[in-house]
Amino acid sequence: MRSGVLVLHGFTGTPWEVEPLVVSLRQAGHLVECPALPGHCTSPEELARTSWRAWQGAAEAAWARLARRSARRAVVGFSMGGLLAIRLAAAHADVAALVTVGTPIAVPSWAERVARWLSHLGPRAALPKLRGSDVRDPAARAASPSYDRIPAAAVVELIALARAARADLAHVRSPALVVHARRDHTSPYAQAAQLATRLGSADVYLLTLAESFHLTFVDVEAPLAIARVSSFLEERLAL
Question: What is the reported pTM?
Fold first, then answer.
């Protein structure tokens, strides 16, 4: 049986933002699952009605599908997808490798207060993305299909997911690669060191990208990020 990789996209995003990595992994011969998470690829209002447990359930279901088809498996999570990936790695001893990319393990307290206040106004209450998607490459920014606003209720769910993932960090034993861009405006770079140092794994690596913004796999250093992530996975899945 071939090896498999579960790739999880980010909050308010779509599989488009991780597609270059998915294509590369498939070309290398891996089986890849890359589900559209509940509330995504539909509408901001639908996302506002979706709980973080639905996102986690979709990730678990995709992992189960991959387990039926592959001998060894790894999980890669971009941004919010990294939080889901952390929880998967903590819960499943068969995660051969974990990769988190631009993953925020905490939300600023002021953002939490604003989101909780706005969430009481209903599913249409949202924060606009005034600068669009956080990607340096202008063509990628124009092409990004992510939502143009962030539902407040969904932010509250994201905060709850981050809290659950933080509690799971010490239980992760899988070899891990933490990828983060120093110029990320969505998930500050300082979060990478916090994540890496709190993982329970004895085998943790940190890859810092100097020029990219948040959408790592479609930004200016995408070839470097894809190559390093692919190399890390090849080594761990071949063991």
Answer: 0.95
